[in-house]
UniProtKB/TrEMBL annotation:
Stretches that traverse the bilayer: 6-26, 38-62, 96-114, 126-148, 175-195, 207-229, 249-266, 273-292, 312-331, 352-374, 394-413, 425-442, 448-472, 493-516, 613-635
Protein name according to UniProt: Heme lyase CcmF/NrfE family subunit
GO biological process, one term: cytochrome complex assembly
Annotated Cytochrome c assembly protein domain residues: 89-295
Start and end residues of each Cytochrome c-type biogenesis protein CcmF C-terminal domain: 315-640
Keyword Transmembrane helix included in the entry's annotation: yes
Transport recorded as keyword: no
Source organism, top-level taxon: Bacteria
Length: 662
């Protein structure tokens, strides 16, 4: 019975969403406060209904209720509890439920924390959120119902895809969806502002916290997905430009541009039209990513759906929301004021350069991702656009922005002093080049141009520190005065410095691991030794093992340096009991910021075991940098100026709707 209640809760949520989709918009046009007040209440009710439905589905997984088709197809009674829970979103139907849950969660948060918003704007924002919720509720109920029953109920489930039975996949999708779906709030603010026909600096202040939150979560989600693929798939790579990876990376690029554009709009009342367009495009790219993953047009470990009906349905949602929003933008944008003017050499100019490069880079990734699909659809020819294309085009496009980032915070608003910024940064640039040269020398060389890449990473890190250094006046005023200045800086200043430094740490990791990594693929018998990165790995032999729902053969290695054994590492091949599917579990030994990566293959003809060994120097910097960037976003989000919100607009009070005389 409880399963049916979960299904009915979705139906009630759809009814609520339809009400919130219509009445508040009508109330906003009529000036009827009572109709507009339906929006926040309805948003909270929607969240409670969807949360209850999601909880019912989770209960079915935890209780191993195999009378539910979705549970039977994606779970097993022997699975550990954590994977039973993560199995809820380890399939198409459940992942769409997670998407919907986070969507209505953001709507409820807008209702709770948007009390300082003008009544009309809040009503329109929540109505647009409900339009999106209604579309996905209809999609789930008609094509992806997770509550379908089986009669008779099977005694056991088919098990979750073994690759997805990992703690990384328990964390990665929720973080990614918090970013993906979080941008829906920015989209709703943009559409609501276009409906009202009014966009100003206060609007940018209201949008920026939601952009920051979504961007920070998406940063964590992409980083977690990259690390999961690195250690779980056993191929030793951290990014392959897979179309599904690109589907999450494109909203991140557009969201980064939106974050900086909204800052210009808030501070200088400029770039209004561009900021609204970016808000629409960022969520549009999130919807595009959903279509690519859920439509079955891609074959990937990330993609679930293969039913063309679902793909067509999501494509219709995509066309309606993107097409409708862009049409509304085309109609209303010419009527919007352009905003303030500024000199090319200014902080605004630096942020415009940031936006230009990021959007072109995003367009490049979009082209490389969709071109093979479009070509196959139109001509039937299949081509592959892989890492060489993306590394060349994206790398060249991003080089200028890496050099420009430290200059932005040092330039004044409206009109900046480029020479003054250069004078402040020439010491930073010199230190960065020396640091890159030293690291290059210590790692025993490589391509000479790698020195410039390493120096660029250090330049970003040192530049972020220099920004805080000069703001505090360290070296120019007494130390206690400098400390008071530093501690008195707004949190957003520290958040910006952390985000920029995090980017530098990631760049440092990418350049270092690309330049200095080593690989050794060999066949080993027990007692034999392989050398790589200054370390020796002795193959000690195979040992059988048994897990909660799998059996495994584990290869054991002893790691030594200069003849002294100091650690051990193991890699295994697992066979899962229910599905009889095999996986390879890599063995990873972390040494500071670097890692030794071991993955076993098949038995060789001479009785040995094929072993792949990688030495990954400074690879942890890639994900540490992403973590620092996300922390920077959350630090900025905690700034009191964003938590308090923008000053209220000076608007005429909304009159209640006229009531008929009795």
């Amino acid at each position: 019975m409880i399963i049916e209640l979960g299904h009915y809760a979705l139906v009630l949520a759809l009814a609520t969403a339809l009400i919130v989709s219509i009445l508040p918009v009508v109330g906003a046009r009529r000036g009827d406060v009572s109709m507009m007040d339906i929006a926040p209440v309805g948003a909270i009710v929607m969240f409670l209904l969807v949360a209850f439905s999601f909880g019912v589905l989770t209960y079915a997984y935890v209780a191993s209720d195999f009378s539910v088709l979705n549970v039977w197809a994606n779970s097993h009674s022997l699975m550990p509890l954590i994977f039973k829970i993560s199995g809820v979103w380890g399939n198409h139907e459940g992942s769409m439920m997670l998407w919907l849950l986070i969507l209505v969660l953001f709507s409820a948060l807008v209702a709770l924390f948007g009390r300082n918003l003008p009544e009309v704007l809040r009503a329109n924002v929540l109505a647009v959120q409900s339009w999106i919720s209604s579309a996905f509720l209809v999609f789930i109920l008609l094509t992806s119902n997770p509550f379908i029953r089986l009669d008779p109920a099977p005694a056991e489930g088919k098990d979750l895809n073994p690759v997805l039975q990992d703690i990384g996949l328990a964390i990665h999708p929720p973080l990614l969806y918090l970013g993906y779906v979080g941008f829906s709030v920015c989209f709703s603010f943009a559409v609501a502002a276009l409906l009202e026909g009014r966009i100003d600096a206060a609007w940018a202040r209201w949008v920026r916290p939601w952009t920051l939150a979504a961007w920070s979560f998406l940063t964590l989600g992409i980083a977690m997905g990259s690390y999961w693929a690195y250690y779980e798939l056993g191929w030793g790579g951290w990014w392959f430009w897979d179309p599904v990876e690109n589907a999450s990376f494109m909203p991140w690029l557009a969201g980064t541009a939106l974050l900086h554009s909204a800052l210009v709009m808030e501070k200088r009342d400029a770039l209004k039209i561009w900021t609204v367009l970016l808000a629409i495009l960022t969520f549009s790219l999130s919807l595009l990513g959903t279509f690519l993953v859920r439509s079955g047009v891609l074959t990937s470990v990330h993609s679930f759906a293969s039913d063309p009906t679902r793909g067509i349905f999501i494509l219709c949602i995509l066309l309606i929301f993107i097409g409708g929003a862009l049409t509304l933008f085309a109609l209303r944008a010419p009527k919007l004021a352009a905003g303030g003017l500024f000199a090319p050499i200014s902080r605004e100019g630096a942020l415009v350069l940031n936006n230009l490069i990021l959007t072109v880079a995003c367009g490049t990734v979009l082209t490389g991702t969709l071109y093979p699909l479009a070509l196959e659809t139109l001509t039937g020819d299949k081509i592959s656009v892989g890492p060489p294309f993306f590394n060349m085009t994206f790398g060249l496009l991003m080089t200028p922005i890496l050099l420009a980032v430290p200059f932005g915070p040092l330039l004044a608003w409206k009109r900046g002093d480029l020479l003054g910024a250069l004078q402040r940064l020439y010491v930073v640039a010199g230190l960065a080049f020396i640091a890159g040269l030293v690291l290059f020398y210590v790692r025993h060389g490589g391509p000479v141009l790698a020195i410039l890449g390493l120096a660029a990473g250090f330049f970003l890190i040192f530049g972020a520190v220099a920004d805080l250094w000069y703001r505090a006046g360290i070296g120019k005023v007494a130390l206690n005065v400098a400390w008071r200045r530093l501690s008195g800086l707004p949190r957003s200043a520290f958040g910006t410095a952390l985000a920029h430094a995090g980017l530098g740490i990631t760049v440092l990791g990418i350049i270092a691991v690309t330049t200095f990594e080593g690989e050794n693929i060999t066949s080993m018998k027990p007692g034999e030794t392989a050398e790589l990165g200054g370390y020796s790995l002795r193959f000690d032999g195979m040992q059988p093992g048994v897990g909660p729902n799998f059996t495994e053969d584990r290869a054991h290695f002893t790691v030594s340096r200069s003849g002294v054994a100091f650690s051990e590492v193991s890699s295994s091949k697992r066979v899962f009991t229910a599905s009889r599917t095999g996986t390879t579990e890599a063995g990873i030994l972390t040494l500071g910021l670097s890692q030794l990566y071991v993955s076993i293959g098949d038995a060789s003809k001479d009785g040995g075991m094929v072993v792949r060994i990688w030495w990954k120097p400074f690879i942890l910097c890639i994900w540490m940098g992403a973590l620092v960037m996300a922390i920077g976003g959350f630090v900025s989000l905690s700034d009191r100026r964003l938590r308090v919100g923008a000053p209220s607009r000076k608007v005429k009070p909304v009159r209640p709707a006229m009531e008929p005389a009795e």
